[in-house]
Amino acid sequence: MEIQNVNSENISKTRYCEDNSTLEVILKTGSIFLYSEIDKKTYENFTNSYFKDSYYNKEIKNFFTCFQIK
Fold first, then answer.
1. Nearest to 56 by CA among 5, 1, 2, 14
2. Residue pLDDT tens, the chain, 70 long
3. What per-residue confidence (pLDDT) applies to 3?
4. Nearest-5° angle of CA 5, CA 60, CA 47?
5. How many alpha carbons lie under 13 Å from residue 68 in its C-beta half-sphere?
6. 17 Cβ partners below 8 Å, 6+ apart?
7. How far is residue 52 from each of residues 19, 24, 38, 66, measured CA to CA in Å?
């Protein structure tokens, strides 16, 4: 699982597992969300996005199955 620090206003870190197509998003508030069925291209677009919060909100947050871990 690839852990990456994120330079964003609300997101602290992400962890992506290509084998399981899962994305873990760790917010600066301490909340952790696990998204499933995230393809590698979506993850790459997210990490390459200049406005990560905006990309997350528009392309990931309400469009993939999500479980709140914490």
1. 14
2. 668 899 899 999 999 999 999 999 999 999 999 999 999 999 999 999 999 999 999 999 999 999 999 9
3. 84
4. 30
5. 7
6. 1, 2, 23
7. 23, 14, 16, 18
Domain ranges of the chain: 2-68
Instruction: Please give the order of strands across the beta sheet that includes 11-17.
Output: 2-5, 11-17, 22-27, 32-36, 66-68
Where b means 16+ CB within 10 Å and e means fewer, 20-55 reads ebbbbbbbeeeebbbbeebeeebbeebeeeeebeeb
| φ/ψ (deg, to 5) at 47 | -70, -30
What Cα–Cα distance (Å) separates residue 35 from each residue in 2, 17, 65?
15, 10, 6
Query: Residue holding tokens 């790459």?
Result: 44
What is the pLDDT, as a whole number, of residue 4?
A: 87
